[in-house]
Design a protein that fits this description.
The structure holds two protein chains of two kinds. Helices cover 75% and strands 0% of the residues of chain A. Chain A is built from 14 helices and no strands. In chain A, α4 runs antiparallel to α11 and α5 crosses α8. Chain A is globular, with a radius of gyration of 23 Å. By secondary structure, chain B is of the alpha/beta class. Chain B has two domains: 179 residues, Periplasmic binding protein-like II (D-Maltodextrin-Binding Protein, domain 2), CATH 3.40.190; 198 residues, Periplasmic binding protein-like II (D-Maltodextrin-Binding Protein, domain 2, 3-Layer(aba) Sandwich). Classes of the chains: A mainly alpha, B alpha/beta. Chains A and B meet through α2 of A and α4 and α21 of B.
């Protein structure tokens, strides 16, 4: 009895903080999503109506919601594997026995993570400018016609993906690096004695030993990439032709441009359910494969 | 002795400080380029009113709406603010604005009769005045005089029929890859201008009236220009440089706003320096209406310094100050007497705007308006780019705008019901 009291004392502060700053707002948002809270309600509480699941039903019939969901899936499906591949590749390079200036490169590759997105976006907009950009200038030298990176609906999302991957891969790289360094060297020694090639060492030692780390990185990255917002907000504002409107960007527009907080909360909850379902499926898959 | 001197200095210093604190600080929020320029006028105001100080905060347009609403929710609104005039109904609905009629009645400077009716009217919501126009923004025609003359017309068109005929002649004469007119698809103002020229109101009794013959006529005329190849189906970003293309002769007419006078002047090549002009918008029969855009100066209801803030409104409304402002930035003044200034009268490009301002019309005053025009723009894009039939597009637009206004109708009916239940409680 006394022991459990001590336990409560220890977890108490954390529970209170979580309850006040996480549980309560989430619960309030859930209630809000069942109402039509908007400017009229802001002006006068009597203008608030309880609409049940009306917001959700209406959302599922809104073309822009589906479009934003499609854009977000595009971003996640292309961006997450790319991001994991790049961070794993960078971690392998840094961990290679022949690597020099390891500390310098580790810092340099991690730097994008800690830079301010808004400042970075200014530079990227210059780089990807259709007529004055460095990227098109370089492509011009190999005979590729200029691409309107941020103005063409086909290219805007790939550009956003590139920016997001470049900005975030350093974080996962550090986690992978830690995972790589935790793999016992004698496994590789034994493999070398047996005559295993580099590639087979990677497939049969490195990857399986990294399993749990891969799982964690995968779940965190998927959950993070579903919440795409800042990149399109600073780069394209959802344009061109709404091709970079993500679910969160859609929520932001509903909530803070049109001030339909009821609908915006409903969007947030739908996104929450989607992320929950997908990460839960990933965890199940991982457990089956014995990765967790 | 030195000690006394020091003490004296400190005392003097403190009183000096207190004198500074004595001045009443008016908090003023302004947006965009206007915010940069208005700062240069403030010293003159402070010289004229030694007891007042203006604290200017510059807000970018892209963040203005969010910031104002957030400030409203947090009770942190300033004393006076520059407000886009389509936002006035919204903040009036929120009961955030101070009714200004008593101030205007007592004022020797703000004279309602001197203002263009259409622009003054944008500030009147349900019969109450909530703002004083600061500058006007409308759309009219920029055109190439030489190319129009080459097609056989010595004056710009005054009616839709003349306009159509001129455009067809230009297109026939100039042929492929050139167009008669540029109507960028990313802007709603062109279609809205044509729609405002109709007798049918855009909204009626809290419902959409976009199904009316008037709006159909406007959309038909607008879409027709694309169908006949008179206008390129492009948005502004697809044309690398609108001004260069205008002087290259890619198009002859361009419907745009006052800021472009300055741009065209700056960018006109030497041999085409006098080859362009501005003209009021043609209407279905005779010169037509235009949008009454622009911004107003408003006072917030909760401000404790409304009297002082009103002095600043009066200062910015003085014709000679408006003229200075115009010279600096090119915004169109909303008062007729400002237009009497020699510099404005001598400007041939501004004359068309002066003429158009007599015929500007406010858009419906509902807080959903910004969403309505977004829907309108998407509709025109669907018709022009997506090949949707005009009839389908109009019906879809009408239904979606009607749905947007559902809450408004409900709130209105509640208000009426409450008034019936308790006649003493009046609507805000």
């Amino acid at each position: 009895m006394k022991r459990s009291l001590v336990a409560w004392v220890f977890v108490g502060p954390a529970l209170i903080v979580l309850g006040v700053f996480f549980g309560l707002p989430v619960f309030a948002a859930l209630l809000l999503s069942l109402t039509d809270f908007d400017l009229y309600a802001l002006a006068d509480w009597r203008n608030l109506r309880f609409v049940g699941f009306g917001n959700y039903i209406e959302l599922l019939q809104t073309p822009l919601f589906w479009k934003s969901l499609g854009n977000t899936f595009y971003f996640v499906i292309v961006g997450v594997p790319l991001s994991i591949a790049v961070s794993l590749g960078a971690a392998l390079l840094l961990n290679a026995p022949v690597a020099r200036f390891r500390a310098f490169f580790r810092t340099a590759l991690f730097a994008p993570v800690v830079t301010t997105l808004v400042a970075v976006a200014v530079i990227w907009r210059y780089l990807f400018h259709s007529s004055y950009g460095l990227v098109n200038w370089a492509l011009g030298h190999v005979g590729i016609a200029p691409i309107d990176w941020l103005g063409d609906p086909q290219w805007a999302m790939p550009t956003i993906i590139l920016l997001a991957v470049w900005k975030n891969f350093g974080y996962n790289m550090v986690i992978f690096l830690a995972g790589l360094q935790a793999i016992p060297q004698d496994l590789y020694e034994a493999a070398r004695i047996d005559g295993a090639s580099r590639r087979r060492q990677f497939w049969h030692i490195t990857l399986p030993m990294l399993g749990p780390v891969l799982m964690v990185v995968g779940v965190i990255t998927v959950a993070g990439y579903f919440q795409l917002f800042a990149e399109p907000y600073v780069m394209t504002r959802g344009d061109p032709l709404q091709s970079t409107v993500s679910v969160l960007y859609f929520m932001f527009e509903e909530g803070f441009r049109w001030w339909n907080l009821g609908r915006a909360s409903a969007v947030a909850f739908l996104l929450f359910l989607i992320i929950l379902a997908i990460t839960a499926a990933m965890m199940r898959f991982g457990r089956k494969k014995g990765m967790v | 002795m030195r000690l006394i001197a020091v003490v004296l200095c400190v005392v003097i210093g403190l009183t000096a400080c207190r004198r500074v604190d004595d001045r009443v600080t008016i908090r003023f929020w302004a947006m965009g380029r206007e915010a940069e320029v208005v700062g240069e006028l403030i010293p003159q105001f402070e010289r004229e009113h030694p007891g007042l100080r203006v604290e200017l905060q510059q807000i970018p347009w892209t963040a203005a709406h969010e910031k104002l609403l957030t400030a409203y929710a947090a009770d942190a609104l300033p004393d006076i603010c520059q407000l886009g005039n389509t936002w006035v109904p919204e903040f009036a609905e929120l009961n955030a604005l101070e009714p200004l009629q008593p101030y205007v009645d007592a004022s020797g400077i703000v004279d309602q009769k001197d203002y263009f009716e259409g622009i003054w009217d944008t500030n009147v919501v349900d019969g109450r005045l909530y703002g004083v126009p600061w500058y006007v923004d409308t759309r009219l025609m920029f055109y190439r005089k030489d190319l129009l003359a080459a097609a056989g017309y010595d004056h710009p068109p005054k009616t839709w029929a003349e306009w159509s005929a001129a455009m067809t002649a230009i297109k026939r004469q100039r042929g492929k890859d050139t167009y008669a007119i540029l109507l960028p698809l990313n802007e709603f103002e062109q279609l809205l201008s044509l729609a405002l020229q109709q007798d049918d109101p855009l909204l009626r009794d809290g419902r959409s009236n976009l199904d009316s013959p008037g709006f159909r006529r406007a959309l038909g005329f607008y879409a027709g220009m694309f169908e006949q190849g008179l206008a390129p189906p492009m948005s502004e970003t697809q044309i690398s440089n609108v001004w260069d293309e205008f002087f290259n002769g890619m198009f002859v007419f361009y419907v745009s706003g006052p800021w472009n006078i300055r741009e065209f002047r700056k960018r006109a090549p030497a041999h085409l320096k006098d080859a362009w002009g501005t003209a009021p918008l043609p209407g279905p029969d005779g010169l037509g209406a235009g949008i009454a855009g622009g911004t107003s100066l408003v006072l917030f209801r909760d401000s404790p310094r409304k009297a002082a803030a009103w002095k600043f409104v009066e200062f910015l409304s003085r014709p000679e100050i408006q003229q200075k402002f115009h010279a600096e930035i090119g915004d169109l003044p909303p008062r007729r007497s400002t237009w009497e200034h020699p510099e404005l009268r001598a400007d041939p490009y501004a004359a068309a705007f002066r003429d158009q301002l007599e015929r500007v019309k406010p858009t419906p005053k509902v807080l959903e308006w910004e969403r309505v025009v977004q829907e309108m723009r998407l509709t025109s894009e669907r018709v022009v780019r997506g090949g949707q039939s005009q009839d389908d597009a109009v019906r879809a637009l009408d239904a979606s705008v009607d749905a947007l206004l559902e809450k408004r109708r409900w709130v209105e009916s509640q208000r009426v019901a409450r008034m019936k239940a308790a006649p003493s409680e009046s609507a805000p």
